[in-house]
Structures are given as structure tokens and as C-alpha cells.
Amino acid sequence: MAHRTAPEPPALVPAAAPEEAPAPGAVFDWLDETAELRARAGLTRTLRSRPADDPVIDLAGNDYLGLTRHPTVTRAAADAALRWGGGATGSRLVTGTTALHTELEGELAEFCGVEAALVFSSGYTANLAALTALTDPDTLIVSDAYNHASLIDGCRLARGDVHRAPHSDPDAVRAALAGRTHRRALVVTDSVFSVDGNAARLPELSAAVSAHGAALLVDDAHGLGVLGPGGSGALAAAGLAGRPDTVATVTLSKSLGSQGGAVLGPHRVIRHLVETARTFIFDTGLAPAAAGAALGALRLLRAEPHRAERAREVARSLSDRLTAVGLQASTPDAAVVSVRAPGPEAAVAWAADCRRAGLAVGCFRPPSVPDGVSRLRLTARGDLTDAQIADAVRTIAALAPAGAHQA
Ligand SMILES: Cc1ncc(COP(=O)(O)O)c(C=O)c1O
């Protein structure tokens, strides 16, 4: 039997002439255009790998206590890798929790004076976890305008409404809390702001959250190991450690010389994160070598608490000496010092000249600086000698571009 096919419908629109397909890869042409725009604005960023035996004095990294290469820390990392393997093998809830993770969490919590801690693969994922898991659509998140990018991204992922509060302004925070229509509120701040190294006004923020039934989330990335008794952090320094309405996040990658992050707070907060935080549940556990190194560094810091005070002392010394030679250095509350540059290109050239002269300094420029002011960023290291500090200041001053000095 012959097959009957349905008649073709009449063509209502003339068929368009087939267009020539764009060249494969043309879809990314716009990336070159934006790269060109960044280059014209002096905002190109490039990677440079450093040799293991780099002879430069490093004021660019975040190794505040100089522990990254301390033999106790590297030995702890190596032992952990030899014992537990190169990776954690799975997410924390499946196979990625080793006895090392549990020990590290216990000791971190005890050191910082909080009920419990939960270790993440980075400070970034710890911040995303805290912001997304501790908020719901009926939460107002009040976030300092100068907060770190990982807190900003946490705010973007969270389901609550975000209010960007002016920098370091507890009155504005209080007003936002008082005027809210949301059932819950979370105030979010860095403890020490990454760019200028100034400290958040934690006692006033804590008073504001308690007056308004809100919670406080403090990113103590730059406070752990530097502020508080023996480096136990900004909450301890402000007498706020262990409060039931307060949560901290930390990174293990700065003063603890390793890699990873943690959330610190009341037991019920930590339990909630274990059961609900997506960057905890769907992420491979922190590598054993990193957990081991962080634990080694933490034990070292507890045995040698003067290391924290020395990092602060080096920062003050850098700031005082740079100011004395007429540069616009920030007054450090912890271990970060910034020096104003006349513009992004001048900042990049200044940092590059310093590097050629054997001194590594950071360079912050838009979009990493919320106020648009480009800067050199120096991180004080507790293991620097007074002679090294004096040398560093001499180099920075000698290479300063026109316009870098105070008016
Ligand atoms: C304030 C602050 N929060 C969070 C992070 C992220 O931590 P991590 O590097 O461990 O992801 C950093 C820096 O790297 C930081 O400076």
C-alpha cells in the first residue's frame, strides 16, 4: 500500500536566504574588545609565576606571620599528605572529613573562643556559605560598602534583600535595622578592610544588632592571627567572641600560612551549615595537606603568641616611616598598610619598579578599590627585621611617582 503523506502547508513567508555562519570563536570577539578597554584604562591584569627561591622581600602576600615556609608548618603539610593522601577524596559529608579536619575545627573554635567551627575549602566558600545559609527571603542583609568581594558575592547569591550601608557607619546600620520590614536581619562586615587596613567598629555594630534582634557576621580574614590576645581574632579583641548572635568567617590562607577557610559560631549555626550550605555540601573537602599546615600553624601561634603583636608592630613601623617621608600611608589597625598612588597606571609602574628593586608590593586599583583610589598595598610580616623594614621604606620612597606625596 502506498504511504499517504500530509500535504505541505502553503508557505506564508518566503524562506530567508541562509546567512553565512559566523566563524567559530567569533562568539568571544567581545572579550578582546573589553580587554582593549581595560588596557586603555590602565587596568590590564597579568599572571606572573614566581620561582621558589625568589629573593625579593615580600610585602605583597598575606603571610602575616611568615609561617607559610616555617618548617613546623611545611612538615605538618607533608606529614598530612603522606598520611591522608593528596586530596580529601570527596565532599565533607561523604568521605572528605578526616580526623585532621575535626581536630582543626576543635582547636580553631577553642582558640577563637567560640562554640564550634566548620572548615571549608576556602575563605571565599566559607563566606558564600554563611551568607546564603543564614538568610532567607525574609532577611534584610546590611552590608558595608567596602566589604570584600566574597561577601558581596555572598550577598548576591543570598535570597534576602541587600542594603549597602555607607562604609564604617554604625548609625546608618542602626537606621537600616530600625526601618526594616523583614523578620530577620544580618549585618555583614569585614573585621579589617582589605584595602586600607582599617578596622570595623565592631562594638557599635554588635550593640546595633542586639538592640534590633539581628545577627552579626564578621569576616575576620585579616584579623585572625593578628588581632586579639595572641592573634585570636577581631571578635576576641572586641570582647565579642562566643556571643550567640555573632558568627565569624576566617581564611586559613593568610596568617595561618595554608589554604582554606572556616565559619566560627554557635553550635546550631554550624549544624545548620553542615546540613544546608551548598558550598559545604557540594564542594570537595579541604586537602589534608592544607588542613595539616593550618593546624601546625595554629599550634605554633598558640605556643608563640608574640607573633601577632610583632605583625602589628611591623605594620605601624611601615606606616610611620612612610608618612615621615611624605607619602600618604594609611594608619593600620592590623597588618595591612596602603599608600596612595596618583592613578592606576602610576600605581602599576610604582609596584613594578619596586619589584625590579627586590621588593614585592601589592597594587590595588579599580575595580578592587571601592573608592576608585589606586594604591600600593603592603602587608606587614611579623618575621621582618627592622633593617628590612627600613630598606623597604627607602625603596618605596625612592621610586614614588610624581603626585604620590602629601599635598
Ligand atoms: C577579607 C577577605 N575575605 C575573604 C577572602 C577569601 O579568602 P580565601 O583566599 O581563603 O578564599 C579574602 C582573601 O583572599 C579576604 O581578604
From TrEMBL:
Pathway where it operates: Cofactor biosynthesis; biotin biosynthesis
Q: Is Acyltransferase one of the keywords?
A: yes
* Domain Aminotransferase class I/classII large, chain residue ranges per copy: 55-396
Q: Which Pfam families match?
A: Aminotran_1_2
Catalytic activities: 6-carboxyhexanoyl-[ACP] + L-alanine + H(+) = (8S)-8-amino-7-oxononanoate + holo-[ACP] + CO2
rRNA-binding keyword on record: no
TM ranges? none
According to its UniProt record, the EC number is 2.3.1.47
Which family is this protein grouped under? Belongs to the class-II pyridoxal-phosphate-dependent aminotransferase family. BioF subfamily.
The record's subunit annotation is: Homodimer.
In its UniProt entry, what is this protein called? 8-amino-7-oxononanoate synthase
Which species does the entry assign this protein to?
Kitasatospora aburaviensis
